[in-house]
Amino acid sequence: MPASTRVIPITPVAVEPARRIHARRTQGVFTRWRLALVLVTQLVFYGMPWLSMDGRQAVWFDLAHQRFYLFGALLLPQDLIYLTGLLIVCAMLLFLVTVVAGRVWCGFACPQTVYTEMFMAIERWLEGDRSRRTRLDQAAWGPAKLLRRGGKHLAWALLALWTGLSFVGWFTPIRELVHDLPTLGTGFWNTFWMLFYAGITYLHAGLLRERICQHACPYGRFQSAMLDRSTLVVSYDQARGEPRGRHSQTPAEARGDCVDCTLCVQVCPTGIDIRQGLQSACISCGVCIDACNQVMDKLQAPRGLIRFSPLDNQAQWHTPPWRRPRVAIYGGIILAVLVAMAAGLSQRPQLRLDVQRDRGVMARMAANGDIENLYRLQVRSATLQPQRLRIEVNARDPAIAAPLTAAHEPQAPLLPSAGALSLPVTVRLPAQAAQALRGQTVPVRFTVTGEGGTREVLADSTFSVPR
């Protein structure tokens, strides 16, 4: 080996096996808020597909027919711009909440957190509290352990399957799905997505849990770039808590308020020690605050050893949120997008019209000398009420004397609710007017008006007059 070659010694390091985190149950204001958000979000997710309106599912994303029902509103593929606006609002709202209060979205409303809480509730119900679950992990396999573990996974699987069914129920009428389940007549794609979503739920909320937050979720990695000095994060007051130790074994003048009970670690769903400072795995759920406050109450010490506090000072919040640049920018974007969406929805046409000329016959002469052009009108409804249509056609330039008339069958076509209609239309120009416009192409405008005060919709085309 040449003398110039450098050898870097490699020292083997023993890798500790990954330990399963069994979060201890606690009580407090943040725990109650988390429970409330679990109930609200899942009431919407599981319950919304069962609501009915006018004989159909109230909220239904009908991908097969490209219609999206939101209670009394109907959205078409042309309205996907509003989905884009909604996604922008959600993203900016997430950034705004992060700037103000860190990862509270992760700790309170993220689907990963919500479903993990639901799966953990089943685990506590069937396997007991934290100490019992830990002993069950260490126990040898036997009938008792097999029964408890098997029952837990069976309950998890049933919840995951119901979750998958509810997810597909947003896109396929859920009552039809439930009716077809016993006969396995739900169809290939409905079954596929039901099992796929159920499997993802079972894997993420039951088996992986905190590993998703620690290793797979990108939000925890870039959140530090979104924080500022006034962002509220879960913090441990080291000046007050250190040196930590049991009060019965430490003189009063040489101890802090932290008794090193480790309850803040035991209740943490990601298994971190908040006393080591802000960490990317912290999801700002606040359960460590609840646990610590309970200990402080027993010690008759002030609450707040662990609390939400700004990054730069744990005692006060220096700058109000509305005076911080990032909050103002994110809030301004949210407000602007919401105003634009509201204005667009208020002006959204209730009828959609597309005019196509008959390419096979550009123009033809009737028996009485009138000139006829053939068109096909594609009319689509953006309302949930059937309506009769009135069709008119006129020259776009008022200076052109072209008394056009539109003939179609039936005379008052019926556009069904949330439906589409293809109408062949014959536009006729009297012979006398055609003499003055020979060899010209006249710009024309079709006007379709629905009954019941529906706004008219316009579409432009041309009328050819042969020489």
- How big a fraction of the residues is strand? 15-25%
Q: Give me the Rg, rounded.
A: 33 Å
Percentage of residues assigned to helices: 25-40%
Q: Count the helices. How many?
A: 15
Estimate the mean pLDDT confidence. 88
Shape: elongated
What low-confidence regions span 5 or more consecutive residues with pLDDT below 50?
A: none
Number of strands: 16
Secondary structural class: alpha+beta
| N- and C-termini, Cα separation | 97 Å
Largest sheet: 5 strands, antiparallel
What does this structure look like?
- By secondary structure, this protein is an alpha+beta fold.
- Helix content is 40%, strand content 19%.
- It is built from 15 helices and 16 strands.
- The strands form five sheets. Strands 8, 9, 10, 12 and 14 form a five-stranded antiparallel β-sheet that branches. A four-stranded antiparallel β-sheet has the order 13-11-15-16, with no helix packed on it. A three-stranded antiparallel β-sheet has the order 3-4-5, with no helix packed on it.
- The termini are far apart.
- The mean pLDDT is 88.
Furnish the topology, listing elements before pairings.
Layout: H1 29-47, E1 52-53, E2 56-57, E3 59-62, E4 67-70, E5 73-75, H2 80-101, H3 104-108, H4 111-127, H5 130-138, H6 143-168, H7 174-180, H8 188-208, H9 210-216, H10 219-222, E6 232-236, H11 238-241, H12 263-266, H13 287-299, E7 306-310, H14 325-346, E8 351-357, E9 364-365, E10 371-381, E11 387-395, E12 405-408, E13 414-415, E14 420-429, H15 431-436, E15 441-450, E16 457-464
Antiparallel strand pairs: 1-2, 3-4, 4-5, 6-7, 8-10, 9-10, 10-14, 11-13, 11-15, 12-14, 15-16
